[in-house]
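QA checklist item 7 of 12: single-chain prediction sanity check.
[x] sequence parsed
[x] length recorded as 225
[x] structure emitted
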Amino acid sequence: MNKIIEISDLHKVYRTGYEDLLVLHNINVSVTKNCSLTITGHSGSGKSTLLNLISGLDFPTKGRIAVNGQRVDSMNEAELTQYRSLYIGLIFQFHYLLNDFTALENVMLPHYMSGQKRKSAEERAFMLLKEVGLEERIDHYPLQLSGGERQRVAVARALINDPDLILADEPTGNLDEKNSKMVEDILFALIENHRKTMLLVTHDRNLAERGSRQMRLEHGELFEL
């Protein structure tokens, strides 16, 4: 099976004026295409740090990170910008929508900025918003949407550039139980329908159990469940 993520001998140490904080230690993992890998761990265990390293938002102290054969850990800023734009979709606990833009504009913007024509970007954004059940809300601004609706817009935005890999960091962490379940269902349905690979980190055991593969991060190391 084709591997989309290959991580070997990964370490991350945050150095302060008083001590060195070892966050990740000897991480070795590979992820095949079309897998939905969920990683659990308590708050502060390094889950978000791991996603930041894979997305190139942070750099490892030691080790190798490759996505689709590309060495993320050795990319320069221009290469990282293109990598994040074209190859990965990011979903955070907070939606990070632009308040002055409609739902449609928020979703289409990354596609338009990647060089696509406006009409094409709008059409693709509309289809994704329809898939998340928001076709009637495309002209609404974030402040006119509920928390669950905003997060569904963020899920649609993560898929707009047809990325190979979705990285999701506590995507339902700010939602109530009803909206959390709805966003979970939509997210996993989209991943399956669009044949995407997803790495999702969460402290929610029920959400983690929906992954086709499950791991746990403890004391800086990854363990298969």
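[x] summary fact logged: The chain has seven helices and ten strands.
[ ] second reviewer sign-off
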